[in-house]
Amino acid sequence: MSIEVGSKLQGKVTGITNFGAFVELPEGATGLVHISEVADNYVKDINEHLKVGDQVEVKVINVEKDGKIGLSIKKAKDRPERPERPERPERSFERGERRESRGGYSNNSQRPRHAKPNENRVPRENFESKMARFLKDSEDRLASLKRNTESKRGGRGARRG
Predict the structure, then answer these.
(1) Quick one: three-class SS letters along the chain?
(2) pTM for this structure?
(3) Tens-binned pLDDT, residue by residue, of the chain (161 aa)
């Protein structure tokens, strides 16, 4: 039996590392079952699932050019297909909640989302003008803050007692 991607084989665990387990396959080949391919749930310690000498069924998930064989124990298990999930019922929105629909209209707007809000809007401000406006606002706030704190202290030259 040749080792091809997708084939299921019986193998024997020959070594365990912190990242997976080495499995000896028929014809003397060895493959690696990565720790993420050991079980369906999270595997913190592979030793809780496998021991050296265990016989396991594995599925070949890849064969690299240099001869490395990637195996999976969890994909080798025959599981029934998951039943399709029933469609979710439509939610009703109450008390002013809004619902955004894809590409349609929202409750508070009567224009399609993809339409541009204002065709004659002002062009975007460049970086230098934004910085100049920020600097002016910052200086105004700082001056206002200084005036406010000086008046609470009694101004300059006030007596300290």
Answers:
(1) CCCCCCCEEEEEEEEEECCEEEEECHHHCEEEEEHHHCCCCCCCCHHHCCCCCCEEEEEEEEECCCCCEEEECCCCCCCCCCCCCCCCCCCCCCCCCCCCCCCCCCCCCCCCCCCCCCCCCCCCCCHHHHHHHHHHHHHHHHHHHHHHHHHHHCCCCCCCC
(2) 0.48
(3) 568 888 899 999 999 999 999 999 988 889 999 999 998 889 889 999 999 999 999 999 999 988 899 999 998 887 666 666 777 777 766 665 555 555 555 555 555 555 566 666 667 788 899 999 999 999 999 999 888 887 777 655 555 55
